[in-house]
Q: What sequence folds into this?
């Protein structure tokens, strides 16, 4: 009897997931719409606060290009991740892993786990690695729902990426030269041992990963009801590494590993020097991270021609970053110039207590992420007032960064911005996978907020270090 009840509940859960997926396929808008709406909403709020509209246009324009260095850093995370994941040795690992799952439901849970595990290393790598894993699995197992497994491949960005080594907020706060001057006056330097490498952060990460895999497994449609890759007309041919033949003497170096060996050796010696002199926790900033990925990708591709081919393939996946980040820079200029930042800090201070602040920050970060779906640029917008309020209330600022990290991933589950590289690999539309992401979001919200509140009680306030 109990087994029958479980089966009935399981069936209802699957039907609910399929209904969400069908609804989102019909109604979900494009990522750029969210960015434009965010500009208009912030502009109207600034106007309502008494700011002159003409002056606000100047604030927007002055801030528009303010995030260019950070934009390039984010673009290179995508480029380096793609180049590394598509290298022949890593692609062979992908093919071997794709042979392990034997059922459609098991395959979806399998992809969910590896998507999240790889995102802790690099979210850019995770998107491409998981997308290639999906393609290889769907070539081998029939009846896998392409929407559900696509959403599983996206879980790294929608669940735990910001709790790992590619956390934009944590790396930014660990990089003195990247912290805006106004923010540095508030927070000082917040090192990684106070953010992502605390036991509270790692425990939060483990719980979210377990929850996500369970949801992915039990919501997977049966093969009979699945919408497969074939249904969407997706070609699942494997990657090709044919480089052609040398036609001119000038092309000899492009096909030779000599340059790769020399440049990689120089790069690895530099990384060793940085780690040995500063310690590995202190060198994990965005620039070093991107440098490491590019050198490693070059080494694994072995020949410059192969490496450049991978780079060329990765560039289209950066289009969303390059086009939308300037708008986020404009939003930052409006929030800081209109006084919205200071007003929000006062609101958080007035309505919060030391106990309720972690939950309120988590909710706010998640809501703002619907309009600014970038962990790094959104943190620059949000950090001045949330950290100022944390100081006023005596809340551990390192844990506030972690609250941001955990809550920031929530809106990614429904905002299509960071899906773009994965969608390119899978040849899908955001609306086709976001339904299963919404299902994950319904469970993630209460769990994430509870953990943010619970672990905040275990960390005392620490004054900023300058």
A:
């Amino acid at each position: 009897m109990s087994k029958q009840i479980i089966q009935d509940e399981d069936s209802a859960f699957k039907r609910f997931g399929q209904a969400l997926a069908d609804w989102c396929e019909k109604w979900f808008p494009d990522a750029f719409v969210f960015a434009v709406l965010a500009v208009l909403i912030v502009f109207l709020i600034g106007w309502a606060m008494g700011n002159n509209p003409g002056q606000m246009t100047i604030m927007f324009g002055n801030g528009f290009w303010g995030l260019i260095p950070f934009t390039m850093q984010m673009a290179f995370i995508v480029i380096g991740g793609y180049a590394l994941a598509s290298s022949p040795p890593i692609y062979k690992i992908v093919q071997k892993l794709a042979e392990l799952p034997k059922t459609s439901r098991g395959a979806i849970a399998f992809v969910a786990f590896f998507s999240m595990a790889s995102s802790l290393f690099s979210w850019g790598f995770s998107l491409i690695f998981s997308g290639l894993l999906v393609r290889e699995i769907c070539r081998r197992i029939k009846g896998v729902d392409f929407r559900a497994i696509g959403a599983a491949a996206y879980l790294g960005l929608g669940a735990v990426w910001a709790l790992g080594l590619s956390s934009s907020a944590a790396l930014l706060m660990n990089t003195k030269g990247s912290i805006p001057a106004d923010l540095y006056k508030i927070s000082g330097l917040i090192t990684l041992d106070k953010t992502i490498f605390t036991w509270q952060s790692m425990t939060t990460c483990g719980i979210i990963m377990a929850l996500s895999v369970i949801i992915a497994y039990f919501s997977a449609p049966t093969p009979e009801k699945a919408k497969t890759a074939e249904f969407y007309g997706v070609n699942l041919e494997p990657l090709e590494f044919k480089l052609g033949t040398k036609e001119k003497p000038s092309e000899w170096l492009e096909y030779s590993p000599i340059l790769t060996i020399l440049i990689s050796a120089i790069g690895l010696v530099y990384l060793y020097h940085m780690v040995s002199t500063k310690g590995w926790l202190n060198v994990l900033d965005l620039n070093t991270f991107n440098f490491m990925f590019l050198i490693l990708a070059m080494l694994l591709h072995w020949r410059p021609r192969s490496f450049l081919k991978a780079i060329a393939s990765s560039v289209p996946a950066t289009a969303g970053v390059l086009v939308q980040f300037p708008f986020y820079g404009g939003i930052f200029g409006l929030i800081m110039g209109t006084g919205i930042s200071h007003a929000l800090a006062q609101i958080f201070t007035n309505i919060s207590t030391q106990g309720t602040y972690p939950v309120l920050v988590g909710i706010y970060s998640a809501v703002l992420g619907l309009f600014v779906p970038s962990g790094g640029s959104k943190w620059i917008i949000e950090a001045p007032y949330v950290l100022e309020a944390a100081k006023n209330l005596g809340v551990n600022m390192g844990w506030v960064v972690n609250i941001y990290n955990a809550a920031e991933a929530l809106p990614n589950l429904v905002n299509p911005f960071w899906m773009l590289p994965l969608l390119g690999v899978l040849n899908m539309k955001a609306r086709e996978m976001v339904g299963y992401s919404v299902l994950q979001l319904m469970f993630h919200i209460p769990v994430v907020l509870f953990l943010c509140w619970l672990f905040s009680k275990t960390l005392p306030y620490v004054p900023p270090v300058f």
Residues 1-9 have pLDDT under 50 and may be disordered.
